[in-house]
Amino acid sequence: MRVGILTFHHTTNYGALLQSISLYRVIEEFGHSVELVDYRPMGALRQSYLARVRGLFKGSLFVEKKTREFARVLSGYEIGPCVYTNNGLQREYESRYDLVITGSDEVWNTVGPRGFDLAYFLDFARNGTRKVSYAATAGKDSWEKGKRDKIRNALLKFESLSVRDESTANLVAEVGLTRPEVVLDPTLLVTDWKVGDRPLSGKYVFVSGQLPEPEQKKVVQIARERGLKIVSGGYAYGNIDPDKVAKFKKL
After folding, report:
1. CA torsion sign, 204 to 208 to 212 to 214?
2. What is the gyration radius of the CA atoms in the chain, in angstroms?
3. Phi, psi of 16 (to 5 degrees)
4. Residue 33 has pLDDT above 70, yes or no
5. Given 84, 85, 86, 124, which residue has the most CB atoms within 10 angstroms?
């Protein structure tokens, strides 16, 4: 069976990349032909380009290098034609697959850089294409009233629904559909990740995610008090520690 996955694969977020290739690998292990739907909505592209430009203006190549490294990893997977709009999706993908999966990640988040995009509710897939979600999440506790009918109508066309968290399961039930099953994130379905050597010796504070400046300063304070290094997984932090008693390092 030919399977397409629509998710947030074109990104510099480690979790998004890992969940994308995890679901890909799991489906492939079942013997199916798998492809990532290369949909890049303008809101997401704008956010990505701004991050790269901000980094260059600050004299940092971190985001640029990270972007290239993520592209290198994705080059080992099958990816469909690149499109930027719903019209492009319908033109290239409406009957390309036997089955299309949306998820995991916050594909049903109706705010944020991507906004309310019915593409992630698979409205582009037609002509008998089967639709399912796996570990989809809204990333919040409510959908806006003006969007619920459209969401319900889109989800009614799904063959199977599963979500990543109880909040999203409640949202699906609130629009009048059967409460979906809550399943594991696909990263937890892969058991043969290749783990390298521990990157640093000694004791340190590990920071996951992009912290706002007040939280960065709090981490620095804690590290100073306890004599610890600070390691950041995935984000390069700027001049938050002028006397360099402790500083953020990237893995």
Report:
1. negative
2. 20
3. -65, -45
4. yes
5. 124
